[in-house]
Specification:
Chain lengths: 219, 335
């Protein structure tokens, strides 16, 4: 078996993505676990997580590290967040904003186990309603809304530290169904540039996610 | 999250009140603060500021104090001995998040029931308005049968404004009977109440137009807020609607006719093809032979919209409508 640390805290085990499991035996979404020596790893399915998909598509930078403070907009059931939670460890924290009450049935058990995720029932368009959130190292946005880039920018201005990173998942279908995905992604990236973001990487998520883009930027 | 802090315009810390280190208490304080309610810690802080001579205290967001705490959050929590270390702070934050969202969910969970009541009231009102409007037309028609504007509301407004037909600007003669002051007075009172009900109707409509898109963004975009709400009311809840097969959605509101068709075995009774969805212009204005097909198409999209609204509330209406429009064109061409 070949284990490679692709990015800090993110491993490739025989070509498959995994993180170290912080709680032994924990598989909140029925993921596969594997024990290597005394370390347990949890596999991270790129078909279910856009960040994992972006990494598999060759993302050059993954600016998430031990101890990071992260604002996560559109955390949903917490699938991706559960892996970020392992990467940042107990000194890091994820503020997870989600506005659909229904997903909280699944999200809350995850946050209660992980202990470094703060679930916030709120609308990412109204950052003033979670104004108590601290300054963060990373803002992660996956909200599938027509104005997702604008929402991301507004939240970065309020919560992202200078030099902090934005990870933005772009679902082009939410923005325009007719235009080619590439053009929509370019257009959203331009909006970020215009606001002074430095674009570090842009990936298409095909074939894991159709017509999706993933952007890493620095403010 | 750890307490309340007040700063002056220059960002100097003036006063503070730390919360009790108890997740549910903190969750409650945050909720109170967000909704602008007064609570113990806030009263205490404002009192202290008054004593120090600060009269003009603002709590609106964003503000300097929020920025101050946001920047110095971890340092403050440790220096003020609120927590011992980062991990303890994180545990507490997470627990507060769980407590807050649990409390918030029980509060916001049932907006669909609210929509159902509001749209049912709207439907009731429509029936009542029609009934009362027909009545006043017949009644006032005894006096001035030549006055027949198409819209009920115009008719009613004129009665409120003029009363006796002789006061109408364009009045010349009439075949109707003469009325005395008492006859006119009661007619005018009736008309005035009716006019108020029309105002109530438009207020209800405005309310629904605002509420429905936030609760069901996809259904609302596909059908318009009122029709979306009517369909929801027929289904009983968003959950039921989301779990319904689209063939049932298509017939919602036509149950009576359907059961009748099933009971009667005779050939002459036709199984109905559509329920309230029929009021959608794409169906009602389509040629007869296409209506069934279009109703099926629309019902299929409504099902997807309802499921999206129930499970994620994600706004996918653009793709939904786009896809629907395309299939609609095909269906129209195919004839
Ligand atoms: C594609 S899902 C996110 C999946 C998740 N990031 C993962 O990988 O595990 C998008 C989520 O964003 C949420 N969402 C959409 N608009 C939002 C808004 N304005 N505020 C908060 N959450 C929102 C939706 O309810 C949905 O759960």
């Amino acid at each position: 078996m070949e284990i490679k640390e692709k990015f800090p805290g993110i491993f490739l085990i025989d070509g498959k993505l995994a993180v170290k499991n912080q709680i032994s035996g924990w598989r909140p979404f029925g993921e596969q676990l594997i024990k290597v020596g005394s370390t347990e790893y949890r596999f991270w399915d790129p078909n279910r997580s856009k960040l994992a998909a972006a990494i598999m598509k060759g993302l050059k930078v993954v600016p998430i590290k031990e101890g990071d403070k992260i604002l996560y907009l559109g955390i949903a059931h917490g699938f991706t967040a559960s892996f970020i939670s392992s990467i940042i460890g107990k000194n890091g924290i994820i503020y997870g904003v989600e506005f659909a009450p229904r997903v909280f049935n699944e999200l809350l058990p995850v946050t209660e186990k992980a202990k470094n995720i703060v679930p916030i029932l709120g609308d990412a368009r109204k950052p003033e309603t979670y104004s108590w959130v601290e300054t963060c190292d990373v803002v992660y946005v996956d909200i599938a809304q027509p104005d997702l880039t604008e929402v991301a920018i507004r939240n970065c201005k309020a919560f992202l530290k200078r030099g902090g990173y934005l990870l933005l998942a772009i679902k082009t279908q939410s923005i325009d169904v007719t235009a080619p995905a590439k053009r929509i992604i370019d257009c959203e990236v331009e909006k970020l540039r215009a606001e002074g973001f430095e674009i570090l990487d842009v990936r298409s998520l095909e074939p894991f996610e159709e017509r999706h883009g993933f952007v890493v930027a620095r403010m | 999250m750890i307490g309340l802090f007040a700063v002056d315009e220059k960002g100097n810390l003036l006063a503070r009140r730390l919360f009790q280190k108890e997740p549910t208490k903190i969750a409650e304080a945050l909720a109170n603060f967000a909704s602008g309610k007064r609570f113990n810690e806030l009263e205490g802080l404002i009192g202290e500021l008054r004593k120090k001579g600060y009269e003009d205290v603002s709590t609106s967001q964003p503000n300097k104090a929020t920025e101050f705490v946001r920047e110095n959050f971890r340092k403050l929590a440790i220096e003020l001995k609120f927590v011992k270390n980062q991990a303890e702070l994180n545990n507490l934050l997470s627990a507060v998040g769980v407590a807050s969202s649990k409390a918030a969910i029980t509060k916001v969970g049932r907006r669909d029931k609210l929509i159902i009541q509001a749209v049912s009231a709207f439907n009731d009102l429509d029936r009542i308005l029609n009934l009362m409007s027909e009545r006043i037309r017949e009644w006032y028609g005894l006096h001035y049968p030549e006055f027949r504007p198409a819209e009920h509301e115009k008719f009613i407004e004129a009665i409120v404004k003029y009363g006796n037909r002789e006061k109408f600007e364009k009045f010349t003669t009439s075949m109707g009977m003469q009325l005395v002051a008492e006859d006119i007075a009661i007619l005018q009172r009736y008309a005035a109440r009716l006019k108020e009900l029309y105002v109530l109707r438009s207020e209800l409509e405005k309310y629904l137009n605002a509420l429905v898109p936030t609760e069901m963004p996809n259904m609302s975009a596909l059908l318009g807020p009122i029709l979306a709400a009517r369909l929801l009311a027929q289904a009983g809840s968003l959950e039921k609607l989301a779990k319904m097969p689209s063939s049932t959605v298509q017939l919602l509101g036509a149950e009576k006719a359907l059961f009748k068709a099933l009971r009667t075995k005779g050939k002459e009774v036709k199984v109905p093809k559509f329920g309230i969805l029929f009021t959608h212009p794409d169906i009602s204005s389509a040629p007869k032979e296409q209506q069934g097909k279009i109703a099926r198409l629309l019902a299929a999209k409504v099902s997807i919209a309802a499921r999206t609204d129930f499970y994620t509330k994600e706004d996918r209406s653009k793709e939904l409508i786009e896809d629907y429009r395309r299939k609609l064109e095909e269906a129209r061409k195919a004839g």
